[in-house]
From TrEMBL, chain A:
UniProt-recorded name of the protein: alanine transaminase
UniProt superkingdom: Eukaryota
Reactions catalysed, as given in the entry: L-alanine + 2-oxoglutarate = pyruvate + L-glutamate
Pathway assigned in UniProt: Amino-acid degradation; L-alanine degradation via transaminase pathway; pyruvate from L-alanine: step 1/1
One Pfam family linked to the record: Aminotran_1_2
Protein family membership: Belongs to the class-I pyridoxal-phosphate-dependent aminotransferase family. Alanine aminotransferase subfamily.
Family annotation (PANTHER family): ALANINE AMINOTRANSFERASE (PTHR11751), ALANINE TRANSAMINASE (PTHR11751:SF469)
Source species: Nothobranchius furzeri (Turquoise killifish)
Keywords for the protein's UniProt record, in alphabetical order: Aminotransferase, Pyridoxal phosphate, Transferase
The protein's assembly and partners: Homodimer.
């Protein structure tokens, strides 16, 4: 029988997920079976999953997708005329006119590639994007995994390393494990609103000498979970750094649609790179990642993502093209991405409703981010950097000794213990910062604040209740 | 100098398939036809995938209606959709976090869907129990197969890991194995006996590993792809005894289990046969069974959903597998719901049942007819032969390519059956896949084409194929 020792060492090296979400689900199940708990329902705000806590989807998207799935609806007058037109156009480019067919190539449906490329070009003020550089995947993680595997190689000192921010998206560390990559941490500066510091990049890179071969740098902008928006100057510095150190840039930009307030503007890495001109624009290898998990869409369960590759070795690009097509991405999410990239225009029948819904999300997010940040900063032994963008808040906790000691005894991370007890006692699931790569005594939790305001109030109320109780029992 | 030029070496092992050349040409021809270029045919017939919707088979109305209702719940507020459709959609939405298909599910899948899948398996297997904890829903069966292989294959190991793989076998798995840094050990199915599996051949394949690699697993496809055989219980028992004796992990690809046509042919799952063999085998043989929503009558390839059930795995290995699966958030939720619909179709008495029955019967009847026609037509042509297709969605006839054609193929740098397929495409607009991609006995040649097509398409295909084949054989005689 296959034993643990027989298993591929790389797989053995994948860290065990904390997976408080499973506990949250179990508790929800128990409640539905009639078990008594100190709370009526569970709120899981640990992932960037707004629908989970009650944010509604965008009507236009859902109508178009429903019509694509069940084309009989096209005969229906109840669906707006622009919805029906859009669905027809999309069905025309599906093999056999059905979303049930495979895509023709591994990269995806050509018309959607074109739509995305046009969106990018428009967004970046005319800096042209080529459709053939767009590759779809079943979620951002799959696209990233593909690239990580292409980068991966070597053993020991020659093992490939990736410069990774701390904190980083909570799904990233496991992905690096799975691809057998060395995580080379660079600390983001909390005191400066989680800014990226070039000196810190250099320092991190220096530590890798003789330890691994660093070949890529991962950036999350706007930051997940930090909410920091990088300015053009920083982006240019990073690009120059990547160029001089021969690093591939892996840039995740999912929260680009959710910049809060007026002070900061999102600018994409590819726009800055291409506007820097040569040699950078022709030499630096860049992979930009995006997905349906934006604030506006929140369609995480549809699992759709894409990457745009710039300056990729043509042989590698071709190689991706010939990968077996039954690894090809699902059709419906590609169509969803196409709709995301090309929403209703002024004059279209769905335009008003669409804009109302988008504005509603923006206002809710803006209000919640501000409210939650004030609230958290008002709690003792807790502080929170205001988010400039994105849907998370990432407050810092000054955990009492009682918790850290108990955690040590139980063999778990203190922030995990905090989150676990919070979940069990108050029915709220937030994410422990150790999942985001935080590995020192600098404890944080991450909270998704894109939720109906009433739900957020409930989450905050329970957090205060738990946190104060904890402090009084430990101090 | 590109940083990403030095691709991981195993990944380099995956070879460029001849088929991509054919696809490119097919796309060009499609363009040319669109632009009105004159050809001996008006449209392509693409039967190169197991993709029924591509060839014109219609999706099942019930499935699409429920999914549309889940995506856009406003549809459930009117009487536009039948009551059982609305009820099912409501029920399914309740199993989704926040009542939306836009929320993540747990890594292994929606709790309710996993439960339903395990109930389905138990039902299918005459009561052999199945547990949700041993099941993982994935975006396509290939993904979970690759993950299981990932557990078993150590790319740095010396000697290399070996996986016994049938020949013929669909190439995606072979590519995955090579890409992971393992060796493929083909075992040849016996064409003249309806592509039956001989244990002696398994032994030969196992022995061929000596000095080359260490066999760790045996991959088997039942019903076969592309070989359309369905294994008998006796044959399956022999395989189980073999893997037990040689301590091999059994990977059972059973995605075509809904597609069985032979008169006295019955699909049995490896799990069932194993369980019914009793201890010690039933408690020790390690098994992973794969199923999918892409295949079968539902044919929803584009939704990309499958599942794997694990049997007799060491709990600590299961834990590691869990970690591996956790590196990807979850399978698309709509696909997971599709699985539910696949395993719990409308029942007699449900308002949707008559239409559902009519649609599935039509597909089933068409398939049986297609299978029969293919067998008759192909076997009536000299230089062409086809084993009876008992299951699966492909025909894999043998083409007796004449020596002159083989020579010509060599001159243009192609495999003989690729050459045949290229000419077939150019002259008749039929896109099939060359047998050389699937593994075949030296000196034999085959083509593979999908038989899950509307009847008129199959008739047209066979018409074009017959004319072409006769011409081809004459030209190179």
């Amino acid at each position: 029988m296959t034993s643990e020792q027989d298993v591929n060492p790389t797989v053995r090296g994948i860290r065990t997920p904390v997976n408080l979400q499973a506990l949250a689900e179990r508790i929800t199940e128990q409640i539905s079976q009639g078990e008594q708990k100190p709370f009526e329902r569970v709120y899981d705000v640990s992932s960037g999953d707004p629908h989970r806590v009650g944010m509604p989807p965008l009507t236009f998207i859902r109508q178009v997708l429903a019509a694509c799935l069940y084309p009989d609806l096209l005969k229906d007058d109840s669906l707006p005329v622009d919805v029906r037109q859009r669905a027809r156009t999309l069905l025309d480019v599906c093999e056999g006119g059905s979303v049930g067919s495979y895509s023709l190539t591994y990269s995806g449906i050509p018309l959607i590639q074109k739509t995305i490329a046009e969106f990018i070009t428009r967004r970046d003020g005319g800096v042209e994007s080529k459709p053939e550089n767009i590759i779809f995947s079943s979620g951002l993680e799959r696209a990233l995994s593909l690239v990580l595997h292409l980068l991966s190689g070597g053993e020991g000192q020659t093992r490939t390393g990736v410069l990774t921010p701390v904190p980083c998206p909570h799904t990233l560390p496991m992905q690096l494990d799975e691809a057998h990559l060395e995580q080379v941490s660079y600390q983001l500066l909390e005191e400066q609103g989680w800014a990226l510091d070039l000196a810190e990049l250099h320092r991190a890179l220096r530590t890798t000498r003789g330890r691994c071969e660093t070949r890529a740098i991962y950036i999350s902008n706007p930051g997940n979970p930090t909410g920091h928006v990088q300015d053009r100057k920083t982006i240019e510095e990073v690009i120059r750094f990547a160029a001089s150190e021969s690093l591939v840039l892996l840039v995740e930009e999912v929260f680009q649609d959710s910049v809060l307030g007026q002070e900061k503007r999102f600018v994409s890495y590819r726009k800055v790179l291409l506007e820097m001109g040569e040699p950078y624009s022709k030499r630096v290898e860049l992979v930009s990642l995006h997905s349906l998990c934006t604030a506006g869409m929140g369609e995480c369960g549809l699992r759709g993502g894409y990457m745009e590759v710039i300056n990729m070795d043509p042989a590698v690009r071709e190689f991706i093209n010939i990968l077996p097509c039954s690894g090809s991405p699902p059709i419906l999410p590609q169509l969803a991405l196409g709709v995301m990239a090309s929403p209703p225009s002024p004059g279209d029948s769905s335009y008003e409703t669409f804009m109302q819904e988008v504005l509603h999300v923006e206002r809710t997010l803006s209000h919640n981010a501000r409210r939650a940040c004030e609230f958290l900063n008002g709690l003792p032994r807790m502080s929170c950097v205001p988010a400039e963008a994105g849907i998370f808040l990432y407050p810092r906790l000054d955990l009492p000794l009682g918790i850290t000691e108990q955690a040590q005894m139980l063999g778990v991370e203190p922030d995990v213990l905090f989150c676990q007890r919070f979940l069990e006692e108050e029915g709220v699931c937030v994410g422990p910062g150790c999942e985001n790569g935080q590995d020192d005594d600098n404890f944080h939790i991450r909270i998704c604040v894109l939720a109906p305001p009433a739900a957020l109030e409930e989450v905050l109320t329970r957090l205060r209740s738990f946190h104060l109780r904890l402090l009084s029992s430990c101090c | 100098m590109y940083v990403m030029h030095e691709i991981c070496s195993s990944v380099k092992n995956m070879k460029q398939l001849d088929f991509s050349v054919l696809v490119r040409r097919a796309n060009q021809i499609k363009e040319e036809l669109k632009q009105g270029v004159k050809k001996p045919y008006r449209e392509l017939i693409d039967v190169s995938w197991g993709d029924p919707h591509r060839t014109g088979v219609k999706p099942l109305s019930f499935v699409r209606q429920v999914l549309a209702g889940c995506l856009y719940p406003q549809l459930l507020e009117s009487n536009r959709l039948k009551v059982d459709v609305r009820q099912r959609a409501q029920r399914l939405l309740e199993t989704c976090a926040g009542g939306s298909v836009g929320s993540y599910s747990d890594t292994a899948g929606l709790t309710q869907t996993l439960k339903k899948v395990s109930e389905f398996i138990t039902r299918r297997d005459g009561g052999v129990p199945s547990h949700p904890d041993s099941i993982y829903i994935s975006p396509g069966s290939q993904w979970s197969l690759t993950n299981i292989l990932n557990i078993l294959v150590n790319p740095e190991a010396s000697p290399k890991t070996g996986v016994l793989v049938p020949a013929p076998s669909h190439c995606v798995t072979t590519q995955s194995i090579l890409g992971l840094g393992a060796e493929v050990l083909p075992y040849y199915l016996t064409e003249e006996q309806g592509w039956a599996l001989q244990v002696e051949e398994l032994q030969r394949a196992f022995d061929s590993a000596k000095g080359v690699c260490k066999p760790f697993a045996l991959y088997i496809i039942n019903p076969g792809n592309p070989a359309g055989g369905v294994q008998s219980r006796k044959s399956m028992q022999e395989v189980i005894k073999f893997v037990s004796e040689k301590k091999l992990f059994l990977l059972a690809d059973e995605v075509y289990q809904e597609c069985v046509y032979g008169e006295n042919v019955e699909f049995l799952s490896y799990k069932r046969v194993l369980a019914e063999m009793g201890p010690p085998l039933s408690e020790t043989v390690e098994l992973a069974s794969f199923h999918s929503a892409s295949k079968g009558l539902i044919g929803e390839c584009g939704l990309r959903t499958g599942y794997v059930e694990l049997v007799n795995l060491d709990p600590s290995v299961l834990k590691l597998l869990d970690n591996l699966f956790s590196t990807n958030s979850c399978a698309p939720v709509l696909g997971q719901l599709t699985l539910d619909l696949m395993i719990n179709p409308p029942q007699p008495g449900d308002p949707s049942y008559p239409l559902f029955y009519e649609e599935t019967q039509r597909i089933r009847t068409t398939l049986i007819q297609n299978v029969r026609q293919v067998f008759e037509v192909v076997n009536s042509l000299p230089g062409f032969s086809c084993q009876p297709v008992e299951g699966g969605v492909f025909a894999f006839p043998r083409v007796y390519i004449p020596p002159k054609a083989i020579q010509k193929a060599k001159e243009v740098g192609m495999e003989p059956d690729t050459f045949y397929c290229v000419r077939l495409l150019e002259e008749t607009g039929v896109l099939a896949r060359p047998g050389s991609e699937f593994g075949q006995k030296d000196g034999t040649h085959h083509i593979r084409f999908c038989i899950m097509t509307p009847q008129h398409i199959m008739e047209e295909l066979l018409r074009r194929l017959s004319i072409f084949h006769t011409k081809f054989m004459k030209e190179f005689s």
